[in-house]
Amino acid sequence: MKKQRYKTWWELHRRVAKGESLSDKERHAYEAGRAELEAEEWAGLRQHSPDLRSLQTRLRKLTRRNQKLVRQEAELRERAVELERQYLALTGEKLGLEV
Q: What span, in angstroms and rounded, lies between the C-alpha atoms of 66 and 86?
């Protein structure tokens, strides 16, 4: 939408938002402008859709990997605590790592 047409549409939009009545001509201009803006927005979304899908797929993969790493970290921490306990039992000394 051209800048001047948008300014005109915006004024109509403000009036509608305030609850003011529009003439039939103004109502038609407002609705046509809104349809044009929505069409431009949808066109932009469709244009970026493949990129968005690719990013969503990558995000899902990275999220699954992160969850797996978090589980592995918890398992390793538990194992470290157990090994420290065993070391203490065998030597009577703490390692002091406190993982």
A: 30
Check if the beta carbon of residue 20 is closer than 8 Å to that of residue 12. no
Residues in the chain: 99
What are the sequence ranges of the domains in the chain?
3-91
pLDDT tens track for 49-97: 777 788 889 999 999 999 999 999 999 999 999 999 999 999 999 987 7
Give the separation between CA 44 and CA 69, rounded to whole angstroms: 37
Contact 80, 99 (CB under 8 A): yes
Find out whether 30 and 22 touch, Cβ atoms under 8 Å. yes
**Alpha carbon distance 54, 76 (integer Å):** 33
Calpha distance 12→31 (Å, rounded): 10
Confidence (pTM): 0.48
Q: pLDDT for 27-39, tens place per residue?
A: 999 999 999 999 8
Q: Which residue type is seen at 28?
A: H
